[in-house]
Structures are given as C-alpha cells and as structure tokens.
Amino acid sequence: MTTSTEAQTCRTTGRIASVGLDDLCARQQPGWSLERAFYTDPGVFDHDLERVWHRQWIFAGHGNAIAKAGDYFLVQIGDESIILTRDAKGEVHALFNSCRHRGSRICNEPSGNARSLVCPYHQWVYGQDGRLISARLMGADFDKSRFGLRRAHAREVQGLIFICLAPEPPDFSRFAQQVEPRLTQHALPSAKVAHVAEYDIQANWKLVVENSRECYHCGTGHPQYCNVVGFAASIGSREDTEADQKMNAAGQALLARHGISASPIPFAVGGWFQFRRFFLREGMVTESMDGKPVAPLMGSVPAYETGMLVVVGLPNLLLEVSPDYAMTLAMFPVSPTVTRARVTWLVRGDAREGVDYEVPRLTEFWRLTSEQDWKLCEDNQAGINSRYYEPGPYAPDERGVEHFVRWYLEQLV
Ligand code: FES
Ligand SMILES: [Fe+2]
Q: Whose CA is nearest to atom 4 of ligand 1?
C-alpha cells in the first residue's frame, strides 16, 4: 500500500516522456524493490541525472591522483564530462569539458598532465583554473574574460574530492566537520595511489549502489571476503555473532587505549553519509586474502589491530580503510544500463612498490570482491529486463538497500 506522503514525495514536474514517473512512484511499496522502469527506462535515467547527479555532492576521486599542478582526470556523469585539475596554487577545479568557442570536447585522455588545456578543434587555450588564456585570430577587442570554461563546485576533504554540478550546492560542511577528524589518522591526503581499476558494469547505477548497501549476498557471493570479514558470514549464525561481539569488545578497548573514537555516524534524516568502524575475524587485521598486512601502516595509525573504518556517501562513494591501505569505490552513471566503477587502492605516501607492497597482493581482495559484485549486478539487471520481473520484498539484512531506495525517491521531488 502506498501512503499519500510517499506519493507526494515522488511528485515530479511531469517532464518524463517515456514513462509516468509520478505513477511509478505512487505505486512504489515501502520495503519492496523498485519497478522495472527505474532500472531500464531512459526517461527515468534522465530524471536520475537531473535530480540526483546534477544536485548532490558526488565523489569524483582522489586529490593525490592530481598531486602536481596541471595533473587532471576526467569524470563522466551521463553525457557530462568533467575535468578535475589542479592549478599552480594547489587549488582543485572541476571544469565542464566543453569548449566555450563551439563546444568541442577539450580533453579526451582519461587522465594526464597539461600546462594548459588546448581545445583540439581551433586551439583556444585555457588555464588549469579554466580561464581562457588565448583565442587565436579573434581580434584585439575580443573579451577573453567572458569565455572561461563552465565550472562545477569542488571540495577536497582528507584527500577526497567531491563535486557538485548544481548552481547552488547542498550543505557540505556537516560531512567535512564530522568525517574529517575521523580520517586524519590515516593521512589520506599524502597517501599514494597504488592502483586503479575501472569497469563498465552492464547494470543501472542503482543496482550497483544497492549491491554495495547489503551483505545478504555475501555468504555465497563472496566466500573469500567472508573468510576475513567475520560479520558478513555470521548473518544468521548466533555463535559467530557472539564471537564477533567479543572481538569487538577487545577491539573497542584497544581503540580507547589509543584515543581513537569508535563512535559511528549514522545516516541523519535525509542525510547522505554514514561512518562506522568494525573489526575483522580474529587474527585478521586487514582486508587481504589471508587477513595479514599487505603494506606499511598508514599515517599515524598506531597498530594493525585497530580495525576497519567505512564511509558511505550517497549516491556514489564507498570508502573502506584498513590499517595499511584504503580502497575507494566510485560509481558513475553512463546510460540506463551501464555504470562505470572506479576502484582505487591507496597506500602510505612513502611506500615503495616491490619493497613495501606488491600490487597483486594489495589489490587481490577488493579486485576479486568487486568483480564478484559486478557479475551479481549484471545478473540482477538481466533478470529485471524480463517483462515478468516484479518487485520483491527486502530481507531484514537489506535495511541499507531500503534506506538507499527511500533516499533516492526523496531526491525525485
Ligand atoms: S570548438 Fe574549441 S576552439 Fe573551436
Ligand atoms: Fe558484494
């Protein structure tokens, strides 16, 4: 049954041509998965872009991926390409990758370093901050100051770059104030990007986020993950849960001895981020295949036994930090049924490849876990494509998915 509040939550401007979004939202039952059109329809996808991706703070990537002046990388959100670049003063800029002359794409390489951004069509030249520096043969009285690249908002917090494409971005200060102090110990701003893996997943972006918000699938979907992350396998097993609790109590005491706050930050009402700590199975200290260290301790982390921290940022960030490395998963919508996932591994800034860490050993755990997830997401999409798909009920362990879907529907206002 749908309440009038939910129907109101979903009220739209009626701009969707291919599907009646108001009707779809009104039919949506709390506690049940979304209807097929939410995962397949181009009109809903356009609406997602407008109401979620062009409004919210989006995790773009790492500040240390553009450590030097002129470094840049691209982010794609639907048809938008955004250049993330750093200028000589160290400031990060988010620039729309569309020339102010006649609109050509300026950067085509996914990342690189450029003293200036030169449009390949007629060679207008832009600075790293997006200012138009030169426009050949445009005449002496041409006013270059009017034709800088369009900009999005960019914020860098603890080495994490967020962008917002909206003219007036929503509040960011709460995230910065609450999450920043909990990350400082890991020194992410000075960490080194050890490896990046990018995937185009044949699934709607919401299916990829939903997959990341539950561990109902972990027992069979990720046996290797469950060997290390105890609670994932303990769902439904009382003995394991009790063992986890004992270990957590010991871990909490260790954190307290080192003065590390263990208090979680739950999602606020209507909020978009969450922070929590947890501990791995006994004898396991990091998210590696055998739970043993794979790199030197990060920043000022005092011991390998201090457990894990996780930050979830809707719509597209999962940050998991072990004592010796950090992993981020960033998800970007490409089309109604394609999502780009960028997985990044960070290690201590002075760690030497081949000496302090080996990329295959560092990355194996999350590479395997991610790829298992992409297969589950693609199978999920394939099944939803069936005309016989109907929404199904969430399990108690899928509260995170239910929360995400509720948050998503609220964005459609
Ligand atoms: S379109 Fe870029 S210089 Fe002409
Ligand atoms: Fe998973």
A: 122
What is the CATH classification number for the domain harbouring 194?
3.90.380.10
Last residue of a domain, one of 114, 148, 169: 169
Residue type, 131: R
More confident residue, 388 or 283: 388
Q: Is the CB of 121 under 6 A from ligand 1?
A: yes
How would you classify residue 59: left for phi > 0, otherwise alpha for psi between -120 and 50, otherwise beta?
Answer: beta
Question: Which of ligand 1's atoms lies nearest the C-alpha of 106?
Answer: 2
Burial class (CB in 10 A: 0-12, 13-18, 19+), 304: middle
Whether 27 maps to a domain, the answer reads no
Range of the domain at 165: 58-169
Atom of ligand 1 nearest to the CA of 102: 1
Does residue 104 line the site of ligand 1, with CB under 6 A?
yes
Residues 84 and 183 in one domain: no
Q: Which amino acid is at 353?
A: E
Q: Which pair of tokens denotes residue 45? A: 């996808």
Check if the beta carbon of residue 26 is closer than 8 Å to that of residue 412.
no
The pTM (predicted TM-score) of the whole model is 0.92
Question: What's the CA-to-centroid distance between 30 and ligand 2, angstroms?
Answer: 23
> 214 C-alpha to center of ligand 1: Å?
46
* Co-location of 302 and 251 in the same domain: yes
Domain count for the chain: 2
- 216 shares its domain with 303: yes
Question: Residue 121 CA: which ligand is closest?
Answer: 1
pLDDT tier at 15, thresholds 50, 70, 90: very low
If asked whether residues 185 and 154 sit together in one domain, one would say no
CA geometry: angle 335, 341, 347, nearest 5 deg: 160
Read off the CATH number of the domain in which 110 is found. Answer: 2.102.10.10
pLDDT digits (tens, 9 = 90+) for 319-332: 999 999 999 999 99
pLDDT digits (tens, 9 = 90+) for 138-154: 999 999 999 999 999 99
Whose atoms come closest to the Cα of 320: which ligand? 2
Question: Is position 139 within any domain?
Answer: yes
